[in-house]
Design brief:
By secondary structure, this protein is mainly α. It has a domain at 2-66. The chain has helices spanning 2-5, 8-35, 43-65, 67-78, 83-92.
Length: 93
């Protein structure tokens, strides 16, 4: 993960059309099969495998673009106060 983090500025934008193309092909195939009244094999598995990268891509984009939120989430996960609350309390005291 540390190796790929240095390329996140390339990988995240490339992932968006890649996942979008996968969703587009899935929807197209599903409509085609519905029109022909054919059952689509592995529909739930395929949908789950498309949903997972969508969630990962949205999460990685949000965490990459919102570094303060990321640090607050990490601080919350390890049991410390978020930095915004800590700095507000420290400046008053």
């Amino acid at each position: 993960m540390a190796v790929t983090m240095q390329y996140r500025r390339i990988l995240i934008p490339v992932g968006v059309p890649g996942v979008g193309a996968g969703v587009s092909l899935y929807v197209r195939e599903r409509r085609c099969r519905a029109r022909l009244a054919w059952r689509m094999a592995g529909r739930r598995l395929t949908l789950a495998l498309l949903t997972l990268p969508l969630i990962l891509l949205a999460t990685s984009t949000a965490l990459d673009r919102l570094p303060e939120l990321t640090s607050d989430l990490i601080a919350w996960a390890i049991g410390n106060r978020p930095s915004s609350q800590a700095s507000a309390t420290h400046s008053r005291g």
